[in-house]
Design brief:
Shape: globular
Distance between the termini: 51 Å
Mean pLDDT: 95
CATH architecture of one domain: Orthogonal Bundle
Radius of gyration: 21 Å
Number of strands: 3
Strand content: under 5%
Order of helices and strands: HHHHHHHHHHHHHEHHEE
Strand order of the largest sheet: 1-3-2
Helix content: 40-55%
Largest sheet: 3 strands, antiparallel
Low-confidence stretches: none
CATH topology of one domain: Arc Repressor Mutant, subunit A
CATH class of one domain: Mainly Alpha
Structural class: mainly alpha
Length: about 300
């Protein structure tokens, strides 16, 4: 780590920038509950804030506590998920709510180990909930954090295609010792990556770390690592699955398979996608020829 990018050199400028430029998001407000923070972190995975915020507000209005969601059928979580994408996240949140209700008295635990033990909660989400809901000192490493670290500290345009152990170690090294400051640091780095240090068009002129950034100091060299795969959507099984789930979500009753099949032109792809949804628990049979969202 170069002298220009020692933690003490980049901490104050970044925190000052965040104090002036942080977005006013509901899950960051003082009244946000740990459950609200957990829901936001799951919804925000691979999904823009603008799409998440209205769904998050509707979700918390309907299910303000884990027990409220746990009392519903899992299919209702999928229905309320709307068009956020990757609806298995809705099932994970439902399973998480059931576990919180049964094992933690309906409360989100303030312990990283207990958070990690919850269904569908991985290292990132546990760290994020621990830091942002409880002020724990935990390295929160998402795509935005990785990109800021890669540029400001490592001097490269983009991080590796997948998270590495070295990146986790670097995040730990950069984390301030004080837990409250560490939590604020983590959200500030994420915000910088989301608003300024973006993947395609970084706003270096507006970056508070510009004169401390190893990538800028190196002349902003282009990315020269392994090719980065761009996920397709149109015509894929993912799109077909989304069409099927959308039809199920719109109906209060089970839907005839023939009606679902009519919504997709490729019969073989439809059959494969429906089988996948049934295997993933996102749909279930209702009789021999009708399908519905999961009931239990």
């Amino acid at each position: 780590m170069s002298t220009a990018t020692q933690p003490s050199r980049i901490l104050s400028p970044l925190l000052d920038w965040y104090a002036a430029h942080a977005r006013d998001l509901p899950w960051r407000q003082p009244g946000a509950t740990p459950w609200g923070v957990l829901v936001s972190e799951v919804m925000l995975q691979q999904t823009p804030v603008a799409r998440v915020e209205p769904v998050w507000r509707e979700w918390l209005a309907r299910w303000p506590e884990p027990a409220d969601l746990a009392a519903e059928a899992p299919g209702e979580a999928v229905r309320a998920w709307g068009r956020l994408g990757y609806p298995r996240r809705a099932l994970r949140l439902h399973a998480c709510a059931v576990a919180l209700t049964a094992e933690h008295g309906g409360q989100v635990p303030d312990d990283l180990g207990a958070l990690l033990a919850l269904p569908g909660i991985g290292q990132y989400t546990a760290a994020a909930v621990g830091a942002f809901a409880f002020g724990l000192r935990a390295a929160v490493v998402d795509t935005n954090v990785r990109r800021v670290q890669a540029r400001a500290v490592s001097g490269v345009a983009l991080p590796a295609p997948t998270l590495t152990a070295a990146e986790l170690r670097l995040a730990e090294q950069l984390l301030p010792a004080d837990p409250a400051t560490a939590a604020r640091w983590s959200v500030a780095v994420m915000e910088l990556g989301a608003l300024v240090c973006t993947a395609r068009s970084p706003g270096c002129a507006d970056c508070p770390l510009r004169d401390r950034c190893a990538w800028v100091a190196a002349g902003s060299p282009p990315y020269d690592g392994p090719p980065r795969r761009v996920q397709a959507w149109a015509g894929t099984d993912r799109q077909c699955r989304g069409v099927i789930v959308g039809r199920l979500r719109e109906s209060a009753d089970a839907v005839p398979v023939a009606d679902l099949r009519a919504a997709w032109p490729d019969a073989a792809q439809f059959a494969r996608s429906l089988d996948g949804l049934l295997s993933d628990g996102l749909a279930e049979w209702d009789g021999d020829d009708r399908v519905r969202l999961p009931t239990g």
